[in-house]
Structures are given as structure tokens and as C-alpha cells.
Amino acid sequence: MSHEELIAGKLAEQLNDLRSGLDSVGRQLRDALAALPVVPDEAELARSIGEALPVPEIPEPVPAPLPVPAAPAAALNNALLYRVEAIEFAKSQSEILEALLQGLQDFSQRAALFVLREDTLQGWSGFGFEGNVKTWKSGLNEDPILRTVASSRSRMLLDGAMPAFIPSGQTVKRSMISPLLLKGKVSALLYADSGEDGKLDHYSADILVKAASLVIDIFPLRQKRDPLPPTLENQSIVLPGAVVGIPAEKPEEDVLFEDSGTLATAEEEMGESPSSQTIVADIPPEAASYSAPRAEIYEVADVVEEVEPVALETPPPMEATAPETPREEAIPQGEEKVHEDAQRFARLLVQEIALYHPREVEQGKRNKNLYALLR
Fold it and tell me: Residue 173: which of 192, 151, 197 has the closest Cα?
């Protein structure tokens, strides 16, 4: 064979190999393309995703909260006002203390009142206890709690404990001891507790104690400073057909607290007022024996000057009119209670000023400068 035939044969073999290789590569590419996933349509893909996701539930709208209605007047405040008025209008010291204990039944489970006499506490009355409160007795210096309350003149609260002068019977959640003051001094002590039920409004109880202290303090002045309006009976006026009766004698009341000062005693201590006193001055003998010289008498001629009368015009008569009486403004309907409370508070304030400042009041009456003196 010639060289040309050999070269042509080799080239033919190489060409066949290349063709077979290209065929195999083409098959592999076709297989690879067949293995690739088909690109999905965007709209179809979005629809499929939307169907696969769960539909969210729309929450129901929450209704707006209803406005809270205005709370009615608390029954507790009404009860407290009623109990304070019962103490204020009591007619004796014992009635004041009884009204105090009755009022405490609304704000405590148990209570006991002790009267202080010469550093000794004597039970007076109470409620909620099994024993007789009147038999209870304790010394003021024997109990440190009593000494603290008496010296500080303020209430004391105890949580889960009872003082030693109260017989132990049942467990209590809270107890209180409050002093009753008379002329600034401790005259009685009030004990109150919650019992096992926890019923103790120590704020309201302390208000009742302070009200009782004030009413007892000004009680001797009530007849003098705040008299009741006159009635037909005390004016000796008898209606036709009525039978005149003899007034019944009032029983003597046991005075629990002695009166330590009234306007009458204050006036006695001040003595006689300067307007009714007579001052005697010491006159020296030289001034007493001195006689004034006689005055010379001169004769003076009477001079009479004639004056022509002047004619005066007579004014026209004027109609006499009576001065108008000022009319009191009528109290608006529904405000009567407010005016009564204001007048009652003003009377209590005036009585307290007259009680604690008798000398200033008397001096202001004499000099007519009461407002400037007490301001």
C-alpha cells in the first residue's frame, strides 16, 4: 500500500471515532435535558400556591366596652353621717357614749369602751364579747400599749394581735385602740377589733370617736350658746281647753366626765368687768385743802341786733314711705340639708372658740374688736 492509502485509512478511522463520540455526547445531552424539570408558568405557580395555603379566618370585631355607670352614693358614707348626727344630738354624756357604741356596730365586729379614772381603766360598756365588759379593769401603767396611746393621744392599730387588757377569746385579724379626749386630756379609751370575719373600718371608727370627743367637750356650753327656739310651753302660753300641768323633774344623770371649764367659770375667774368697776384715786392733802379764788363779776350790756326775717320757700310735702324690709333669700329646693349642715358646723365652731378663748371673747365684746382679736 502506498503512503497515501495508509494516511487515508488512519483518517477514516479517526473520523469514525469522532462521530461515535459525538453521537454518545449527543445522547448524554439529550438525557440531561430530559432530566431537567420543566419551568412552570408563573400564573399557574401562583394559583397552586394560593390553593395550598389555608384561608385565614377574619376575627370578629370586638364590641366597644360599655361605659361604666356612675357609682351611686356609698351606703357607708350615709351610715357614717347618720351615726355622727346621732352622737351630735344626744342629750347626755351617757347617750353620747351609747350612740358611739351603736355606731361602731356598723364598722367593727366587737368594741369596748373604758373610762379612765386616776390611771385606772374601768370597763363601761361594749358589744360582741361573751363576758361582762363592766367587770374589766386595768391599770394605765401596767400595759405599755396603754401608756403609748395615752401619751401620744393617737390611735394604735394591731395586726393579728390583741392587747393584754382584753380577755383573749378568739383570734382577730386587726384591732385598734383610740383615745377619747376631753379638754385635750385622755378621759376614755375605745377598743375595737375585726373578730374572725375581718370587719373593721378603723377610719370610720376613729371619726366617730373624734365626733364623740368634740360633742362631750362642748356639751356644757350647749344650753348657753345654742338654746332651742322658744315654745308655747316655756312661754307660759296655754291654748284654750288645755290643762296646765306641772313639769316633771328630770332625773339626775351620772356625770361620767367632769366639766373642766365653761363660760360661767371663765367669767368668774376673770372677775368683774372694767365697765362695772370704780377706781378710787389717792388725793394729796395739799390738793384737798386748796380753794380757788373768787372770780370777779363784770356787768356786760346786752346788745340786741335786729335781723330782718328771711322768707323761706316751703318745700312741697313728700310722701312718707316706710323702709323696705329686706327679704331673706329662699333656700333652693334640695339644698336644705346642706344649709343645715353648714349652720350646725358654724355653731360648733363658735362654741369651740368661746370654750378655748373665753378671755379673748370677753375682751373683744368690751372693746368691740372681736374679729380683729381672734383673727
Answer: 197
Q: Which of 165, 190, 217 is the last residue of a domain?
A: 217
Which of 185, 217, 249 terminates a domain? The answer is 217
For 185-201, what is each residue's pLDDT tens digit? Answer: 888 999 999 888 778 89
Same domain, 135 and 224: no
Tell me, yes or no, whether 91 lies in a domain. yes
- Using an 8 Å Cβ cutoff, are 206 and 108 in contact? no
Which residues of the chain, if any, have pLDDT below 50?
Answer: 73, 225-253, 259-305, 307
CB 201 within 8 A of CB 185: no
Tens-digit pLDDT profile for residues 73-117: 455 568 888 889 889 888 888 899 999 999 999 999 889 999 988
CA distance 348 to 352: 6
**Contact between residue 136 and residue 110 where contact means Cβ atoms under 8 Å apart:** no
**356, part of any domain:** yes
DSSP E strands, the chain: 110-117, 120-127, 137-139, 156-159, 174-182, 185-193
* Contacts of range 46-54, beta carbons closer than 8 Å, 24 or more positions apart: none
Q: Give me 114's grid cell.
A: 373604758
Sign of the alpha-carbon torsion through 45, 51, 54, 58: positive
Answer yes or no: do 123 and 209 share one domain: yes
Is 327 a member of any domain?
A: no
Kindly state whether residues 174 and 137 are assigned to the same domain. yes
User: What pTM, to 2 d.p., does this model score?
Assistant: 0.45
Is residue 334 in some structural domain?
no
